[in-house]
Design brief:
The chain is an alpha/beta fold. It has 25 helices and 31 strands. Strands 1, 6, 7, 8, 9, 10 and 11 form a seven-stranded antiparallel beta sheet that branches. It has a seven-stranded mixed beta sheet with strand order 20-19-22-21-23-24-25, sandwiched between helices. Strands 26, 27, 28, 29, 30 and 31 form a six-stranded parallel beta sheet that branches. α14 packs parallel to α15. It starts with a helix and ends with a helix. It binds adenosine-5'-diphosphate and magnesium ion. The site of adenosine-5'-diphosphate has 15 residues, from β3 and β4.
């Protein structure tokens, strides 16, 4: 028995059509159990009449022609027809569209016939669609029909395949969700809509030839729904995704011996700085400079080519001009090296010729089973064994638990400086990906997932080469550790001429956002936000719930903090009677006790230490508090409060600090507090923002499991 869906696709291909007609789409939908209006095709007036009689009035007649994509715009839809109107409507449609093509009525274009279907009773109109994203492949769309989609673009996306939860979330995500739940006596059967979303997702997974889908509209009723119009677009010849080579990247991050090809005797040059960095940082492995013109570089014996090194070499760092990298890669292959970082630029980022060069280098590497990072990058930094390929001078980096992945190497160099001078969390691994000719975001993520030093991964992404693999890997990683992503270039409209409505709505930014949600990735919008969030993950345990307590020295900021909590999806904890009693003891009788705690009256009365000490202790004893934000001031002629860190640690809850006031004193306080492993933020809203990401991650992980 042949597969009816396959048959429809094959017939369309044979007829050179990429566009499936309404009756074909409905036949496909029926076969997967999605309810539609009928898909009868009348080829004569008599047939139209007898079909209408069989269906029952009123009926709808629509033109069926490969040349008419938007039927109603072209006047090809006749709604609500009674017994007397069918004949005339049929004639009108056929007459109107027959001149389209000389082969009218035939199988290869022109008018194929007229669709006869029942007039569906009005329901809430929704749209379900599929488009193909250049990075993530097939994506599913859901939205309310009519002005909601046309004007307000109130739609949600998910990368296919979607889970039941994805489908549910898509519906909840749109602003019009309340209309679906019920408004003015109308409501939609959410479960049956979810069922359609899942079935369409399955359909596209099973038939990758289906590139785009528009079910527009679907009528949703209090019980059940009905697809009233459908179109599908087929894909051209299959595209082949790049082969996935997962493997062990230990030698990339932790090589025991490294050759620097293009090592230089001239200070300031990349080939000099790399060797210098390795020596000054105290890299624990062997270093072999390669330079045909030098005997010795920075006191190390230099070799003319890499294959003349008489020892085992785990890693080649290549810093030669682009033109000779092909030869160098051949030397590496001969030497049996399995990992290379290409620092050199002048490849695909520069020109077409560079692109060809890059392809040649990659081909040699693939053949010899060499993994490449770059080209056009600073590469790796691993504070644990002090390995780096960076050509930016690095003096020291605090080792810690935050891993960074970024496309641009220079960005990372500057990041180091920034971390050294202000942020007190340390780094576990850094990878600059450059042109991603071979190793990409997903490969590095996979490695970091099992890296014991890494607790949180921060990523700066410009573009992804293989979105589907990234999504798959990220999904796994976020079960174990949080991923915080800063993505640039998301304002790109990228709208190509699209046949389907869905394709015209599926912008890159929306799809990227949807993919992050599916994978449990946390998105941030700026470098500052990224560091704020990452710092919290680096230092603190996850909260066990959303209930936050805030202690601030001013009433105004208490209101700001309360607003921030609400905005970020957190709740203000309700204090227990015991907590209120304890706070009462330090607070003047006229002052009301509530959360956020306005501590000023207590500070005036008892001085700084007593007030903060008592308040923090009281709040942390409260079982109804999941997280605490404490805001303090640093002013000349006042003591700055220093918390009892043991008490904070013993509470096993995330505690955030803010310090405001005199620059110099703030810096001192930050050093004191962060030195003890508690993050400090300049303002209370930024602390709340960071906390909310801990909470989001916790919740995401709960539902993912
Ligand atoms: P197109 O999208 O190609 O213009 P449709 O088949 O969606 O054509 O028809 C246009 C509009 O007519 C639909 O949005 C819907 O409101 C209405 N309509 C179409 N078919 C039916 C039907 N069988 N029952 C009720 N209304 C229909
Ligand atoms: Mg339509």
């Amino acid at each position: 028995m042949t597969d009816p869906i396959e048959e429809i696709i094959v017939r369309a291909r044979r007829e050179d059509r990429v566009y499936l007609l309404e009756h074909e789409c409905k036949a496909i939908l029926k076969s997967i159990g999605v309810p539609t209006t009928s898909c009868l095709v009348a080829k004569s007036e008599e047939e139209a009449v007898s079909m209408s009689e069989a269906i029952g009035y009123p009926v709808v007649l629509k033109i069926l022609s490969p040349e008419v994509i938007h039927k109603s715009d072209a006047g090809g839809v006749k709604l609500n027809l009674g017994r007397e109107e069918v004949r005339e409507a049929y004639h009108e449609l056929v007459a109107k569209f027959t001149p389209l093509s000389p082969s009218a009525g035939g199988d290869k274009g022109g008018v194929i016939g007229v669709s006869v279907q029942e007039m569906a009773k009005p329901g809430l109109e929704v749209i379900v669609g599929v488009a193909r994203d250049a990075t993530f492949g097939p994506v599913l769309m859901f939205g309310l029909g009519g002005v909601f989609v046309e004007v307000l673009k109130d739609v949600a996306f998910r990368v296919i395949p979607v889970s039941e939860r994805d489908a549910q979330e898509m519906m909840e995500e749109i602003k019009g969700y309340q209309l679906l739940q019920g408004y003015r006596g109308r409501s939609a059967d959410i479960a049956s809509l979810r069922d359609i979303l899942l079935k369409v997702s399955d359909l596209v997974m099973a038939y990758p030839a289906i590139k785009e889908v528009d079910l527009n509209p679907v009528f949703a009723y209090p019980k059940g729904c009905l697809v009233v119009d459908a179109r599908m677009i087929l894909d051209g010849p299959d595209r082949f995704p790049k082969p996935v080579r997962s493997g062990d990247l230990t030698a990339v991050f932790e090589p025991r011996s490294v050759a620097i090809i293009g090592a230089s005797t001239t200070p300031g040059k990349a080939g000099f700085n790399i060797v210098d960095n390795l020596l000054r940082l105290g890299y624990k492995g062997e270093v072999y400079p390669v330079n045909p013109k030098a005997e010795e570089i920075l006191g190390l014996r230099a070799y003319p080519t890499v294959d003349q090194i008489p020892h085992q070499v785990d890693m080649a760092i290549i810093a030669t001009p682009a033109g000779v990298v092909v030869d160098v890669m051949r030397d590496c292959a001969r030497k049996g090296i399995k990992s290379a970082i290409i620092i050199s630029s002048g490849f695909s980022e520069e020109s077409e010729e560079g692109r060809r060069l890059e392809e040649e280098v990659v081909a040699i590497a693939r053949e010899a089973d060499i993994r490449i990072l770059g080209p056009n990058t600073t590469g790796i930094f691993n504070p644990e064994n002090k390995f780096t390929s960076s050509f930016i001078p690095v003096d020291r980096v605090a080792s810690g638990n935050v891993a960074f992945i970024a496309q641009t190497g220079l960005f990372l160099g500057v990041l180091f400086e920034h971390l050294l001078s202000s942020q007190r969390f340390g780094i576990s691994k850094v990878a600059g990906l450059g042109n991603k000719a071979d190793l990409d975001d997903a490969d590095i993520l996979e490695y970091l997932a099992s890296d014991a030093q890494t607790r949180v991964v921060a990523m700066y992404i410009e573009g992804l080469s293989d979105g589907r693999r990234f999504l798959q890997v990220a999904r796994e990683v976020t079960r174990e550790k949080p991923i915080v992503v800063l993505k640039s270039g998301t304002t790109d409209a990228g709208a190509e001429a699209a046949l389907s409505h869905t394709a015209s709505l599926a912008g890159r930014a929306e799809v990227f956002e949807a993919a992050c949600r599916q994978a449990g990735i946390l998105r941030v919008q700026s470098f500052e936000e990224m560091l704020d969030v990452v710092k919290a993950f680096s230092f603190l345990p996850l909260p066990k719930g959303k209930r936050v307590a805030v202690i601030h020295y001013t009433g105004a900021a208490c209101v700001i903090a309360a607003d921030a909590c609400q905005r970020e999806g957190l709740e203000l904890a309700e204090f227990s009677p015991a907590t209120v009693r304890a706070l009462r003891e330090i607070t003047p009788a006229w002052h009301r006790i509530r959360n956020p705690v306005d501590l000023w009256p207590a500070i005036e009365r008892h001085w700084v230490d007593t007030a903060y000490g008592a308040a923090i202790e009281a709040v942390l004893r409260d079982e109804g508090v999941d997280a605490l934000v404490v805001s303090m001031f640093a002013m000349p002629r006042w003591e700055t409060y220093t918390p009892d860190f043991d008490l904070l640690r013993a509470s096993d809850r995330p505690v955030f600090f803010c310090v405001e006031g005199n620059d110099e004193l703030v810096r001192e306080a930050v050093a004191r507090i962060e030195g003890q492993g508690f993050p400090v933020y300049p303002q209370v809203n930024r602390a709340v923002f960071a906390l909310s990401h801990l909470s989001k991650y916790r919740i995401g992980r709960l539902v993912n499991w």
